[in-house]
Amino acid sequence: MSNDFSNDDYNAMLQAMEKEEKENKGNLLYWNPKNEGEYPIRFISPLKTFNEIMFYQRHKIHYINKKPYFCLNQTLTDKNGVVHEAEECPICKKKNALYALSTGKESEEAKLASSISAKDRYVSRVVVRGLKDDKGNDIEAKPQFYEFGSKIHTYLFGQMKRGECGNFLSLKDGRDFILSKAGTGKNTDYSGSSLSMNKTPVFTDPVKIQTLSEELKKMDYNQLVEFKSSDELKDLLADFFNEAKQPVEETQKAVEAAADSFEDQVFGVKETKSEDAGASLPDDIDEILGKI
After folding, report:
1. CATH superfamily of 27-290
2. Nearest-10 crossing angle of helices 90-101, 250-266
3. Percent of all residues in the chain with a pLDDT value above 70, rounded to a whole number
4. SS3 124
5. Of 109, 124, 174, 261, which sits most exposed with the smallest number of CB within 10 A?
6. Can you give the residue ranges of every domain in the chain?
7. Exposed (0-12), middle (13-18) or buried (19+): which is 142, by Cβ within 10 Å?
8. Nearest Cα to Cα of residue 200 among 164, 166, 175, 178
9. In terms of Cα–Cα distance, which of 123, 127, 157 is closest to 142?
């Protein structure tokens, strides 16, 4: 009897399983705390290598079936070095159409609109204190991309405006951020997070400083940016809402016209540009990091 399940079939299955495992683990580009507890991290200041002003890059992200998609209505350079100019986003248009049809914030249309609306997400480079790899090796000096939401951004911005914690981004005498995670899933709460009371250098070990310096040069935020085409997002929405992938009917055109009017009245001018350009590293820890 011949074996119908060939080696080629086996290898194809293995690749599919590896892809599935990767998707189930979420976005491996970002570090995230796995369990509840406190995680000291150190935000890295802007890098003049990449002409930065901010210590983060802001992204507008839609979530469909728990998967992230970059909103097309923002101008960012993608991982291929191509500048994506802000354009009409079909997910935003669908959101506005749903809001135009809703009868109140508790209506099904409003809830759906809220679920697919773009969320502000912020990405920073951080040092994770005590970080180890799967084999237990110390990789604390290897910085990570960390994505966070508006609450942490608001807290940090507030601390900067009040000035009580000084320049916490200083690599010489800044402060760690104690990330406090409580709950899991949709109930995850980071409200207990705060800046440390102690001022410390990011590292004192010259080897770790050198490692940090070399690794940061590889961490352009653009490598995280990948846009889907407008047609791909339309197909995604069609699948999500179980709609047919076909030309828009007259009734849908009317809904979209209502959405356009709604958007003009409520949201006004659309955002078109990102805010990052030109900067320098404050308070270099030493000559090595000062060159980044």
Report:
1. Replication Fork Single-Stranded Dna Binding Protein (3.90.198.10)
2. 90
3. 78
4. strand
5. 261
6. 27-290
7. middle
8. 175
9. 127
